[in-house]
């Protein structure tokens, strides 16, 4: 993704009341951050935050954590949130998901959302794909048994790669579609991301899969 550097973005994201700046300290005790025992759902690569903010508003009994490695993108979510009423079940983390097991303990997470993850088309970069076996291993460390991963993409090659990776690593595929917006069952309650709404305007099909590890 081409990225415009925004001076001061890192500081502005860090100063947001939603951002947890020392997340390692909450490993194993995220329920204390939210002050309840509700399940925790995370989105990795939240971008400008439309999806995670709308989820948090729609499902107040679930705790949501949005993760993004680039403050220059995440700052858009921080700015939007400043204009809104307080959302107590939402937090943001500004970090690379490679360190997820340092942030969450075993079984601490109930669901993971991956939306329009960067495809990293070159083979030598395949480990950076958020559905690579390396990342799947990290997810296994933090997800509750049976906890779902929901993955949406516009990229057919990344979708195929992901199906292969989950199969080889022993994950169970619960559902998939190659045209989410024409699939009334899988599209029910769908909340769109910024990228998704752009692709829909261009009439591009959206792929989605849901999978878990027992
Ligand atoms: C193509 S954008 C999609 C943004 C948003 N999910 C959407 O659908 O509109 C992918 C986002 O994932 C973020 N990302 C990619 N790899 C990441 C990683 N390892 N850790 C955290 N964020 C990551 C990128 O910085 C980028 O903002």
How much of the sequence lies in strands comes to 15-25%
Determine the CATH topology: Rossmann fold
Top-tier CATH class: Alpha Beta
Low-pLDDT runs of 5+ residues are none
Our measurement of the CA-to-CA distance between the termini, rounded to an integer number of angstroms, reads 34 Å
Strand order of the largest sheet: 3-2-1-4-5-7-6
Could you state the order of secondary-structure elements as H and E?
A: HHEHEHEHEHEHEHHE
Query: What is the number of beta strands?
Result: 7
CATH architecture, by name, is: 3-Layer(aba) Sandwich
Average pLDDT score = 97
Mass-distribution shape? globular
Q: What is the CATH superfamily classification?
A: Vaccinia Virus protein VP39
* Total count of helical runs of at least 4 residues: 9
The computed structural class is alpha/beta
Characterise the protein shown here.
The chain is built from 9 helices and 7 strands; from the N terminus they run H-H-E-H-E-H-E-H-E-H-E-H-E-H-H-E. The protein is of the alpha/beta class. The protein has a 7-stranded mixed beta sheet with strand order 3-2-1-4-5-7-6, with helices on both faces. Helix 1 crosses helix 4. It is globular and about 40 Å long. S-adenosylmethionine is lined by residues 1, 44-47, 67-70, 73, 96-98, 115-118, 130, 193-196.
